[in-house]
Structures are given as structure tokens and as C-alpha cells.
UniProtKB/TrEMBL annotation:
<feature type="domain" description="NADP-dependent oxidoreductase">
    <location>
        <begin position="53"/>
        <end position="310"/>
    </location>
</feature>
<feature type="binding site">
    <location>
        <position position="148"/>
    </location>
    <ligand>
        <name>substrate</name>
    </ligand>
</feature>
<keyword id="KW-0560">Oxidoreductase</keyword>
<comment type="similarity">
    <text>Belongs to the aldo/keto reductase family.</text>
</comment>
<protein>
    <recommendedName>
        <fullName>NADP-dependent oxidoreductase domain-containing protein</fullName>
    </recommendedName>
</protein>
<dbReference type="GO" id="GO:0016616">
    <property type="term" value="F:oxidoreductase activity, acting on the CH-OH group of donors, NAD or NADP as acceptor"/>
</dbReference>
<dbReference type="InterPro" id="IPR036812">
    <property type="entry name" value="NAD(P)_OxRdtase_dom_sf"/>
</dbReference>
<keyword id="KW-0521">NADP</keyword>
<feature type="active site" description="Proton donor">
    <location>
        <position position="86"/>
    </location>
</feature>
<feature type="site" description="Lowers pKa of active site Tyr">
    <location>
        <position position="115"/>
    </location>
</feature>
<dbReference type="InterPro" id="IPR023210">
    <property type="entry name" value="NADP_OxRdtase_dom"/>
</dbReference>
<dbReference type="InterPro" id="IPR020471">
    <property type="entry name" value="AKR"/>
</dbReference>
<dbReference type="Pfam" id="PF00248">
    <property type="entry name" value="Aldo_ket_red"/>
</dbReference>
Length: 329
């Protein structure tokens, strides 16, 4: 195995490195040498500071939320990620109301992200959707509100209504963000490709603060996406960093396992640290207490050779686990 490990490193000398692909994009990577991951915050282009490590709640059912958030808050997580289509906003709001006093925390100590359902895009629906999110989460403001998907529910990916509805939605969020009541502290997008970002930025002049998107060694992004994010100071936030549900191949990859052994950490920790060093904020999810704790222990460092070796896994596997927005008009 070790012979194979170093033969691939030698091969890297004639291949693109991740840095060559990502170009000027830095993201959260500069923070890692100065602060511990749990205490690191990134200043978004809106001026809002966001913890670079978040706790994801996708597919965590409402009856599991209290116990799971209890563990997460106890480990030091202060960034909670949810969405309308996760159907757990209300449970999160109630759990935070009950749990924050236990840990001596106030609402302002917690960063909450939620996302607009694709069924609620368009000028006439956004305001009501934001009000529902505020009510469900039992809060007066949302730290980061994302458009969950570049297309609208109920129409095809190539439907010409998608660009119009996307633009209407972004304009409504800009208006809500600019209002003095601070209901939306920062606004952003999720699953947006380069052409989606360029459309809303070109027509409004307002870039998203965050683009939350699938990212792991089997699924990388084109250079153009990094270029537009670097140009407009858009933070990339990774989901599915460990691979998809029912697809354990990434965790079991021999290269990842060898890096984990070298650093005396788990394969999951290697994948999460790799994403951080690539400049991405992360939102790992688990309902298992030990995994929640381990996912927060990321203060080791991968070497440049290890970073680039893991980067090359995409050349061989090239596998996407979640929905693909590339063809959304």
C-alpha cells in the first residue's frame, strides 16, 4: 500500500493540484493556522461572521432533534443548518429554546441557517416563506437564508421560467436583507452553478454571501466556479463531505484510510479536514454522539502532498451523490 501511496504522489508532479484548479479562491483556509476549527469564524461579504464548522440536520427527524442538538451544543457547535424541506425547523426552534440556557448561551451566540423550498420561489411566495421559517425556528431573525435550489418545483430543469423565478426570488431576499429590521442577516444560495451565480450577480449587482454545494474528493467543481466565488468573495460551504447516504465507498477508500492512520484520526475527520483546507466551510451531520464529537475534532493538518493525493481521487471515481443542478436553466 505504501509503495502505491508514494507512486501516486510522484504522479502528482505532472498533474493539476487543487490549488491550480481553485486559483485565487481562499475561503476559510487562511483561518486554520490562526484558530481552532470550533472557534473559527469567517466574515461573509455581508459583514456577518459565520462559524466555519456547522452542524447539519438533513434527514434528522423531529423526534431526534433535541437529543442530537444537546450533544452538538455540548461539543461546542454553534452553527446549525436546516431547511424548509427538512421538516425539522420547528423541532430545532423548540430544542434551542430549551437547550440554550443549559449551556449558558443566548440566541446571538447561535448561527442559524435555513433554506427556501423550491416550491416557494417567486416574488409572491418568498415573504410568507420567510415568516414561516421565523415562526418555526422561534426566532426574530435568521443568520443566513439560502435559496435551496436554482430551479422551481413543478417545472422542468430546462423551463424558461427558472431564470425569471430565480431572479424574482433573489430580488425579494435582497429587499428583506436590506430592511433595517435585520430579519435576514445574510442571504445566499445552495446548489448554484457558475451560470446561476453570474445571472443573479450581473442583473442585481449583489452577490450571495454563501453558496452551499456538494463537495468531496469524488465530486469537484470547475475552475470557473472558484473564479466567480473568489471575485465576489462568496464563501463555498460543503455538504455531503463524507459521501451520500448508503454510499460508504468514500469513507472506505484506501487513500483516505491511510491518511487517517497516519494522523490517528477517522476517515471522516480526514475528509472534513480536507474540505476545510480546500477553503470550504462544512456542515457534517450525524445522530451518533461519538461521531458528532469526532467531527468537531479537526485541529490536525494534512500535508500538501496528502491534499493533492486526495484531490486526484476524482480522476478515478468522479461520483456525485446528491441532486445535480448543472442542467437547470
Amino acid at each position: 500500500m505504501r509503495k502505491c501511496f508514494f507512486s501516486i504522489i510522484t504522479y502528482l508532479r505532472v498533474m493539476d493540484t487543487f490549488k491550480e484548479v481553485s486559483g485565487a479562491y481562499q475561503g476559510v483556509s487562511d483561518l486554520l493556522s490562526k484558530h481552532k476549527v470550533l472557534s473559527s469564524k469567517y466574515c461573509l461579504n455581508s459583514g456577518t461572521s459565520m462559524p466555519i464548522l456547522g452542524f447539519g440536520t438533513y434527514q434528522i427527524r423531529s423526534h431526534q432533534i433535541y437529543e442530537t442538538l444537546d450533544t452538538a451544543l455540548g461539543c461546542g457547535y454553534t452553527n446549525i443548518d436546516t431547511a424548509a424541506v427538512y421538516y425539522n425547523e420547528e423541532a430545532i426552534g423548540q430544542a434551542l429554546k430549551d437547550l440554550l440556557p443549559k449551556y449558558g448561551l443566548q440566541r446571538e451566540d447561535i448561527f442559524i441557517t435555513t433554506k427556501l423550498s423550491p416550491r416557494d420561489v417567486g416574488k409572491s411566495r418568498v415573504n410568507d416563506a420567510v415568516k414561516r421559517a421565523l415562526q418555526n425556528l422561534n426566532t426574530d431573525y435568521i443568520d443566513l437564508f439560502l435559496i435551496h435550489w436554482p430551479g422551481a418545483q413543478g417545472i422542468g430543469t430546462t423551463d424558461s421560467q427558472n431564470p425569471r423565478l430565480r431572479m424574482e426570488t433573489w430580488l425579494e431576499l435582497i429587499d428583506l436583507h436590506n430592511k433595517g429590521n435585520g430579519v435576514l442577516r445574510a442571504i445566499g444560495v445552495s446548489n448554484f452553478m457558475t451560470h446561476h451565480l453570474e445571472q443573479i450577480i450581473t442583473l442585481t449587482g449583489v452577490p450571495p454571501a454563501v453558496n452551499q454545494i456538494e463537495f468531496h474528493p469524488y465530486y469537484l467543481h470547475p475552475k470557473e466556479l472558484y473564479e466567480v466565488c473568489a471575485k465576489h468573495n462568496i464563501l463555498l460551504q460543503a455538504y455531503s463531505s463524507l459521501g451520500g447516504t448508503g454510499n460508504p465507498t468514500l469513507i472506505q477508500n484506501a487513500t483516505i484510510e491511510e491518511c487517517a492512520k497516519k494522523h490517528c484520526v477517522s476517515p471522516a475527520q480526514v475528509l472534513l479536514r480536507w474540505a476545510l483546507q480546500a477553503g470550504y466551510a462544512i456542515i457534517p451531520k450525524s445522530i451518533t454522539p461519538d461521531k458528532i464529537r469526532m467531527n468537531a475534532k479537526l485541529d490536525f493538518e494534512l500535508t500538501n502532498e496528502e491534499m493533492n493525493l486526495i484531490f486526484t481521487l476524482n480522476k478515478k471515481f468522479n461520483e456525485k451523490f446528491a441532486w445535480d443542478p448543472v442542467n437547470v436553466m
